[in-house]
Amino acid sequence: MAALGFATGGGSWFSALALGVTLLKCLLIPTYHSTDFEVHRNWLAITHSLPVSQWYYEATSEWTLDYPPFFAWFEYVLSHVAKYFDQEMLNIHNLNYCSSRTLLFQRFSVIFTDALFVYAVHECCKCIDGKKSSKELTEKPKFILSVLLLWNFGLLIVDHIHFQYNGFLFGLMLLSIARLFQKRHLEGAFLFAVLLHFKHIYLYVAPAYGVYLLRSYCFTANKPDGSVRWNSFSFVRVISLGLIAFLVSALSLGPFLASNQLPQVFSRLFPFKRGLCHAYWAPNFWALYNALDKVLSIIGLQLKLLDPEKIPKVSMTSGLVQQFQHTVLPSVTPLATFIGTLIAILPSIFCLWFKPQGPRGFLRCLILCALSSFMFGWHVHEKAILLAVLPMSLLSVGKAGDASIFLILTTTGHYSLFPLLFTAPELPVKILLMLLFTIYSISSLKTLFRKEKPLFNWMETFYLLGLGPLEVCCEFIFPFTSWKLKYPFIPLLLTSVYCAVGITYAWFKLYISVLTDPLVLKTKKQ
Amino acid sequence: MIVSWMWLHCTSLGLLTIFFEIKKTAFLGAGKPPMFGDYEAQRHWQEITFNLPVRQWYFNTSDNNLQYWGLDYPPLTAYHSLLCAYVAEFINPDWIALHTSRGYESQAHKLFMRATVFIADVLIYIPAVILYCCCLKETSTKRKITNVLCILLYPGLILIDYGHFQNIYNSVSLGFALWGVLGVSCDWDLLGSLAFCLAVNYKQMELYHSLPFFCFLLGKCFKKGLKGKGFVLLIKLACTVVASFLLCWLPFFAEREQTLQVLRRLFPVDRGLFEDKVANIWCSFNVFLKIKDILPRHSQVIISFCFTFLSLLPACIKLTLQPSPKGFRFTLVSCALSFFLFSFQVHEKSILLVSLPVCLVLNEIPFISTWFLLVSTFSMLPLLLKDELLMPSVVTVMAFFIACATSFSIFEKISEEELRLQSFSVSVRKYLPCFTFLPRIIQHLFLISVVAIVLLTLMTVTLDPPGELPDLFSVLVCFVSCLHFLFFLVYFNIVIMWDRRNGRNQKKIN
């Protein structure tokens, strides 16, 4: 009866939402899963059957352990539950093993660990100020935010169809953001440090954390004009932050440092041997760059400016992770991408330092960091867009301008995830889920900001509507044309270039809004 | 208004997602020769109707082996198969080639078959539900939308139509019936009766609903006066019904033998009082006394007919004398339930025919309706387990329950008035002044029933039945559900019979 009362009470819309999405996740159990399923099974086997010293050396499977130690420990804990389901999945040599019990266990492990994500969303909702709250429940920012986060399309398909453990990792991130909003800085810093040792992709947003904590936590006061008051520096706070970071790192990396394995661990974590782009180009700056290169080379061939003999015969979207030679434009090195990322991040960091605007400013900087690294990073996965999409949801319910950027970013970013699910049975599910989420997000944010100017101008509307015909062309028309055999990469190319345009646009717009935002002096802080 | 449209949109999209998910999880008997499961039946009908002349559809010929998934539904189903066959022929002629296509299975074909169900659903059933809820009186927009959500989320229909893939087009006949209800309640009597005739011609099981339709329309005619407008209406209705039947059966009226053969295929009397395990009286009673073996077949038919007739008589008479849309909906429930419990040759899935009208009264008596809909899904448990649909069933049942519980707050609506039992208790209290405990009893019954359902489900799933009683759990499931259904039959009859007085009392109070 407790469960019944839990579901029926007046303020329990949150649990209803969470339960609803959990049920949907359960329905997704038998769907297609990618090689990441085998990756995580292999890690279960490695951590279960080998001593710690072997974890980062084991290479029976091609899917070696390439996440930081905490994640390995997480798999280790999971494996002790897994043995009650199916002992066979914990055998390293049992490659591509997938019994129905293994499937159930792995899927349910994702669903259960998502509890952390649900809790984090709950905490985040508390941080949203309900100034505009209307009487209608469905028009409250809190409600909209929790739907946007809990029912996020990208997270659903990446975690529960494609298979990964992003849910609880993003839970950690959102929780640490929420703690910063609640002025519990040490806790937030601790959570982020732990998160970094779960999955190092979150290094992308580390600059935002570092600068924010230094500026707004270690310096306890501002001058009247908003600039930093240098003598307000608190050594106690810096030391406690440093201690947290050090202790967490020591706990994670210590054992490997002790046995002199650190270089091996790092070589696994940062594989620079992979190419500039993934097999399918993530929709970022390099996708545009590659596309331009292709176009130029084709034009060059037509105009006889280039020698056909010299053109490398490797096509980048043919499905293998490999190095790619640019034909016309200069080839890109890891160092160049690194510098590009750094340059892209710097203005936002400066902004955070010189125009501190509390947690909201931090959140904007964090999103810009994530987006900039997505735009210019080396070997970026299309899934990394979630790193910007999820925090952006928090901003979207606050201001109409942010809402419009969020919608463009989310819709484009989610659409760019479509190639992850390429099997026919998943086609209706991905389209319907995407429509569900997009229609909901657009219409709910439109109602929320109905008193302000329209969220999209004609160009943005046109661009977003263009995604529909693009999908029809790529999935329904192209397979029946004669080009299918000759140019199999065209749908992927079109998708990534089209999405790259939208994401670049959103990135640009967000940057402009951050840089031109007038400085709001916070007098009450002093 | 924008908000409500948006919710409607999102709701339906979300449901479609769920539909697709369930479809994918299971295909009954797919890939099991020699009968290839019921999926094959649907494909086979397309093959038959496309390749053979109409004359041979229902006959056993060298090209049409009736033992192998012979056509046993009325002509409209056959036409629908023919239509699908034309599309299939356009896409891939191999799918429906005579003889050679038997047991055909491929990814593309599955997608095609799913798409046909899906399209039928979107065209007929879903619009009917949405329109019905929009026509509800005295409810807010939000309430209407939650009503749509709950009706569309009803697990029984989703699981049977999309998971089981047998009689997959249940939603077509139910959708037509719903259009009928809609038409008749909104006073578009001719359209309503036309829609209902289509429903009957799609699946003969729709006859369960025919008596309330007949009584309600007849009652309307009486009300208008049989000598004036009522007579005209009666004639019009009769003409509509006859014309629509004629149209559907036209190809089979050429010869007398044709018509009889179709009828024989539709009503296979020689298949016995019941098959498998059904949650009706006969199957449950069979535990104590093997009626099926003791009595000769024709007396079985007579007994079941008498029981059915007697049990639905009071409600029908009441409806004829005092026709009202509300009474009509309740009578639909009680008649369908009587048919399900007492009639001859009932299948587990026929409970869907009761569930549909119960969905229609969800708004009026949310507590009892939710309870009934849960029990009805539970009664199909053996069938669902056979299709390995345990996971989707649990998920959808929970989703449905949560949706109903949150949107109607059913646990607060258990007073006598909310249960529509006020006038009944008032009249009982004349003889038994202390009769005030009815709502409490019903509440306790609900708890007991939920516990029983959960326990039985757990036992069926986890325990192996003892060797000498292999069907123990499925019989128990049927027996428990049957008890529930009897209770609901009594309840609905009480509500119907005491309905008018309630109205008068309220007027007096006002």
UniProtKB/TrEMBL annotation, chain A:
InterPro entries assigned: Glyco_trans_ALG6/ALG8
Chief location: endoplasmic reticulum
Gene Ontology cellular component list: endoplasmic reticulum membrane
Location of this chain's protein in the cell: Endoplasmic reticulum membrane
Record flagged with keyword Membrane: yes
GO molecular-function terms, A-Z: dolichyl pyrophosphate Glc1Man9GlcNAc2 alpha-1,3-glucosyltransferase activity
Residue ranges that the Swiss-Prot or TrEMBL entry lists as coiled coil: none
Transmembrane segments: 12-32, 141-158, 188-214, 234-258, 335-355, 361-378, 429-449, 461-483, 489-508
Signal peptide: 1-18
Membrane topology according to the record: Multi-pass membrane protein
A single BP term in Gene Ontology: dolichol-linked oligosaccharide biosynthetic process
Keyword Membrane: yes
PANTHER family: DOLICHYL GLYCOSYLTRANSFERASE, DOLICHYL PYROPHOSPHATE GLC1MAN9GLCNAC2 ALPHA-1,3-GLUCOSYLTRANSFERASE-RELATED
Protein name: Alpha-1,3-glucosyltransferase
Gene: ALG8
From TrEMBL, chain B:
Swiss-Prot/TrEMBL catalytic activity: an alpha-D-Man-(1->2)-alpha-D-Man-(1->2)-alpha-D-Man-(1->3)-[alpha-D-Man-(1->2)-alpha-D-Man-(1->3)-[alpha-D-Man-(1->2)-alpha-D-Man-(1->6)]-alpha-D-Man-(1->6)]-beta-D-Man-(1->4)-beta-D-GlcNAc-(1->4)-alpha-D-GlcNAc-diphospho-di-trans,poly-cis-dolichol + a di-trans,poly-cis-dolichyl beta-D-glucosyl phosphate = an alpha-D-Glc-(1->3)-alpha-D-Man-(1->2)-alpha-D-Man-(1->2)-alpha-D-Man-(1->3)-[alpha-D-Man-(1->2)-alpha-D-Man-(1->3)-[alpha-D-Man-(1->2)-alpha-D-Man-(1->6)]-alpha-D-Man-(1->6)]-beta-D-Man-(1->4)-beta-D-GlcNAc-(1->4)-alpha-D-GlcNAc-diphospho-di-trans,poly-cis-dolichol + a di-trans,poly-cis-dolichyl phosphate + H(+)
Function text: Dolichyl pyrophosphate Man9GlcNAc2 alpha-1,3-glucosyltransferase that operates in the biosynthetic pathway of dolichol-linked oligosaccharides, the glycan precursors employed in protein asparagine (N)-glycosylation. The assembly of dolichol-linked oligosaccharides begins on the cytosolic side of the endoplasmic reticulum membrane and finishes in its lumen. The sequential addition of sugars to dolichol pyrophosphate produces dolichol-linked oligosaccharides containing fourteen sugars, including two GlcNAcs, nine mannoses and three glucoses.
Keyword field: Endoplasmic reticulum, Glycosyltransferase, Membrane, Transferase, Transmembrane, Transmembrane helix
Species: Loxodonta africana (African elephant)
Major site of localization recorded for this protein: endoplasmic reticulum
Record-listed E.C. numbers: 2.4.1.-
Subcellular location: Endoplasmic reticulum membrane
InterPro entries: Glyco_trans_ALG6/ALG8
Membrane topology, from the record: Multi-pass membrane protein
MF terms in GO: dolichyl pyrophosphate Man9GlcNAc2 alpha-1,3-glucosyltransferase activity
Pathway(s) annotated for this protein in UniProt: Protein modification; protein glycosylation
Similarity comment: Belongs to the ALG6/ALG8 glucosyltransferase family.
A GO term from the CC aspect: endoplasmic reticulum membrane
Name of the protein in question: Alpha-1,3-glucosyltransferase
Taxonomy, superkingdom: Eukaryota
Transmembrane segments: 111-133, 145-165, 177-200, 230-252, 301-321, 351-374, 389-411, 432-460, 472-498
